[in-house]
Amino acid sequence: MKRRILNIFYRILFYASTFGLLFITLGPIIWLLLTSLKPETAVFATPPQWIPKDVTLSNYAEAFKQYSVGRLFINSMGVSLSVVVLNVLIGTPAGYAFARFRFKGDNAFFIVLLLVRMIPMISVLLPLFIMFSTLHLLDTWLALILVHTAAKLPVTIWLMRGFFREIPREIEESAKIDGCSVLQTLRRVAFPLAAPGVGAAAIMAFIFTWNDLLTATILTSTMASRPMTVGLMNFIMQFRIAWGPMTAAGTLMLIPAVVFCLWAERYLIRGLTFGAVKG
Amino acid sequence: MPTELVKQMGFGDLKPARRKLSFFGEHYVPFWLVLLAVITIAVILIYPLIYSIYLSFMDMSLGRGTTIFVGIRNYSDILFDDPIFRKVLGNNMVFMIISLTSEFLLGFALALLLNRPFRGRRFVRVLFLLPMLAAPVLVGTNFRWIFNSQFGLLNAILRVFNLPGVAWLVKSPWPMASIIVAEVWQYTPFTTLLLLAGLQSLPDTPFEAAKIDGASWWQQFRYITLPLLVPVISITAILRIVDKFRIFDIVYVMTLGGPARTTDLLPTYTYEVAFSQVRFGYAAAISWITLMLSLVFLIPFIKGALARSFD
Amino acid sequence: MVVLLTFGLFTSCKPTAPKAEETTAATETAAATETSAGETTPAEKKFEGVTIKALLIGGPEYEPWWAKVTADFEQKTGIKVKYDMLIFEELMKKEITLSAAKSSEYDVYSSHHAQIGAFLTSFARLNDYLGDDVNDFPKEQIGPGITKEGDIIAVPKHTDARVMYYRTDLFDAAGVKPPTTWDELIQVAQKLNKPPDQYGFVITGRGDPFLRQYSDFLWEWGGDFIDKDMKPIFNSPEGIAALQFYSDIINKYKIVPPDAAGYGWEEPSRLFAQGKIAMVNDWPGLLGMYNDPKTSQIVGKYSFAPLPAGPKTNITTSVSHMLAINKYSEQKDAAWEFIKYLISKDVLIENYKFNGQIPTRTSALKEIVETAVSPEKERLASLLAAISTGKTWPVFPEWNEVAPAIWNEGQAALTQTKTPEQALSDSETATIKILQRAGYIK
Fold it and tell me: What is the domain range of residue B293?
């Protein structure tokens, strides 16, 4: 009897804390969403309008019409997805190699990767600009993709290394016994099992590219390649923040990130199947 | 055999003896895999890195059109003759320690919560990740208004409970607290995500064995979960620490480093030096010192990150 | 930093001219009878087919005008202008980066008094292009674009200054008139101060907005930043008194919201638009926001007055937006044709009618003033009161380092973590170090 009450208590505690944390987590985002649906005067009403009195989509209309949010979106999406693909293609095998093999200087390489990750972007912005300017690659998707891929690779490699480590070797051993080469082992056995890691790495690469501001500001100038973050800055004008269209654009920016997350998050679940295999 | 025993205990395999890598053949493959990644990074970042180091030894004044070699004077100025740098460094330390601890505690709690199966878990998991998906510049602006003392959401909620409003972004020590809140809010999902992925990858056997032996939840956590998660925890810690020295958008938008530089951090100061004061050489030196400083804080975690979990 | 002049009785891209009908007729007759100081007769199409690239200031206030004027220009001269626009912050960052990289990508740059010290060696020399026309520009406004060697590297297009916006409804109800001095302002504001829903006044506190406001106080109290020997002189009884007064507004008289010490430009404007403030010193650009029911609760409830004067002077900040040619441009002549067109008298007047930007060119301004009618007349009068006595910051490359030193310490005085004496003393120490390192003083 006591046990049951304790169980119920824990369950209540569990759900209460989950909801509490969820509220804090989502509160500002819901606020953002609600703000995007209000006319701008209502945004600053005191006391604040929790539920918008006049719901309007005019902010979204303005975001698309006046601020070309559609094009910004495409730019962001194109660059971010490319970076993710490249990261997975290049970073996963590298992470696997670090995880499974010891070779001369492997730890040193690893630290170098870390150092690369640590480089403050500000210090390389000017030289990056000069470099791409000389190559006539300013204001292109390619420049952004290259820089972001290079910048995100260390994290991808680190993550993949960590997750590959979690996989017991016996599975790969049996693959080897079955005659798989290193690459085949990677592709058929290790990769699917490290799926949570791939999911996490993909989410990371996507998010940090999608949300980058500083690099894009320097390397882009026109709608040809400008991503949404830079576009958002246009709403933060000198004397006023155009809250209406900005929250609309901000909300729009969240959607693909959420969708991508939903898709990549599936790989986090794969960990369960791993348990089944192992058992 | 010792390895059999360990396996039975459910701690996974011991790694076999170190593989020697011969230069050719199948064993060459990993080398190539790594090389590809390294080449990609090197080609793109080598020139900027070298140029940045070069700049750090120069006094570059755009307005005067001069670039003069000054040796290590930038570095020595920063370390010994720049009270702003010292203040900013102190701010960054405080910021880092408090936000990092919060992110980890919260992140771990969340990861553990989300690791248990319950209805709607997948959906809830993505919901918890949302803050991380918002652009920092958006988060900063959002919080700038939430913390506003006249219009802000926070003070409005306080007033509902008849509590006085606070000038969150102005009255010490709240500005620092405010940016920490914004940062923790935004990046706890990062910690949660990585820790959760780590938790998900844990093998079941050790836990099953432990349960059979009657171990409590806490014992399982302390003796199985934590040790197995050391690599993931270390990597997460490293990544977060590094980011504490790179945070920019949130602070820039919320407080601009103020009031009176009380929330000025290394990246915002570097930015000011580079683009407001237009001294690229000095800014480059600050960023390299920042990098070296962040290295210092990473040292305790590197061993854990490099460790192989089953050794 | 940024001073955007926006005269928008519109919020979308549709231009609406202020009282266009009344002024147009007058201007047309005027133009027909007098010879313009600026060239607006179509240049010979010797640059036919040339394309130049311009990096111009962006934002909804500017974009429609750029679209129109570049189209007109191409029609008249055959020169095609391909332009990119960035808002002020981004514009400055981009121009700094481009100049540091010695890029020749753009031919024409938008510029501004703020931060121009960084570009003194990156813009082309315009003395020969401008010639005697330089005399048609007030010294105070074109001065910042002239290096100490006498090279003109930027020309002013339109000028910005602040005016006092005040709530006619609140003033009438309380039976008060707009103050003419700061002491009067305190009294009037106290009468209209009903915290927390209404404050008599509002002020900025952080960064560049702080420094602009402090500049007004400093000059009006009789002080200044740097003397002609490049010695800092703001740490003086006048400077301290000015900063003390600034702090008192927030902390002693409490006629502004309590967190004003953290405000940039956005908060005061927003608060005034929401009807929470009785008066604010603000830029003309805010007119669009104040007149739009979508963003303002005070449409039709406010009017303009000149800024209040201090105990010694009524000198306040006035800054100009400028245009410059990239030193590394390969099409300087064609670039100059564009700039010449933009700052020509007739085009400036057209500019004013299009979006209310006040031309810097003396002859153009004179004509606008002569032909203005109410209520534009009052607004112009208030603006010109500030512009005519307007001053701007000293122009030298290292000013960009001095400014943050002053605004950070100054903000400490506003939040009362330092006394004004301490704050200015610390700023002075930092400034002296900067000037010594730059070699201006020993």
Answer: 82-309
| The residue type at B136 | P
Taking CA–CA distances from B138, the nearest residue in chain A reads A250
Write out pLDDT tens, residues C158-198: 998 999 999 999 999 999 999 999 999 999 999 999 987 89
In this structure, the answer to whether residues B131 and B187 fall within a common structural domain is yes
- Give the predicted TM-score (pTM) of the model: 0.83
Verify that B37 and B102 share a domain, yes or no. no
pLDDT digits (tens, 9 = 90+) for A176-203: 777 777 667 677 777 777 777 788 788 8
Please list the residues that pair with C199 across neighbouring strands. Answer: C277
Domain count of chain A? 2
Regarding beta strands C302-305 and C277-282, do their DSSP bridges make them parallel or antiparallel, or are they unpaired? unpaired
Interface check for C68 against chain A (CB to CB < 8 A): the answer is no
The helix/strand/coil state of A104 is: coil
Domains in chain B: how many in total?
2
Contacts of C101 (CB under 8 A, 6+ apart): A126, A129, A130, A133
Q: What one-character DSSP code corresponds to residue C207? A: H
Beta bridge partners of C305: C164
Q: Which two tokens stand for residue A118?
A: 């640590």
Coil, helix or strand for C236? coil
- Quickly count: other Cβ atoms within 10 Å of residue B51's Cβ: 18
In this complex, the chains that touch A, judged by 3 or more CB pairs closer than 8 A, are B, C
What is the maximum alpha-carbon separation in chain A?
A: 77
Considering the domain architecture, whether residues A52 and A92 belong to the same structural domain is answered as no
What are the φ and ψ backbone dihedral angles of C397, each rounded to 5 degrees?
A: -55, -40
Cα separation, C225 vs C394, whole angstroms: 8
Task: Say yes or no: B131 contacts chain A, CB-CB below 8 A.
Answer: yes
| Cα B70 from Cα B124, distance rounded (Å) | 56
Nearest-angstrom CA–CA distance, C154 and C321: 9
CB proximity C2 to A under 8 Å: yes
Q: Beta-strand (E) ranges in C239-373?
A: 277-282, 302-305, 318-325, 358-359
**Complex ipTM:** 0.78
Are residues C59 and A237, on separate chains, in Cβ contact within 8 Å? Answer: yes
Angle between helices B29-56 and A69-100 (to 10 degrees): 120
Element (DSSP H or E) covering residue C99: helix C88-100
**Span B216-226, average pLDDT:** 82
Those residues of chain A whose CB sits closer than 8 Å to some CB in chain C are 39-41, 44-46, 58, 66, 125-126, 129-130, 133, 138, 217-218, 221-222, 230, 233-234, 236-241, 244
Structure tokens at C426: 């610390």
Cis previous bond, A196, omega within 30: no
In-domain check, residue B181: yes
B8 part of a folded domain: no
Q: Who among C86, C266, C296 is closest to A239 (CB)?
A: C266
Overall size of chain C counted in residues? 442
CA–CA separation, B26 vs C138, rounded Å? 78
- Residue C137 in contact with residue C350, Cβ under 8 Å? no
- Helix B83-115 to helix B226-244 angle (10° resolution) is 140
The residue length of chain B stands at: 311
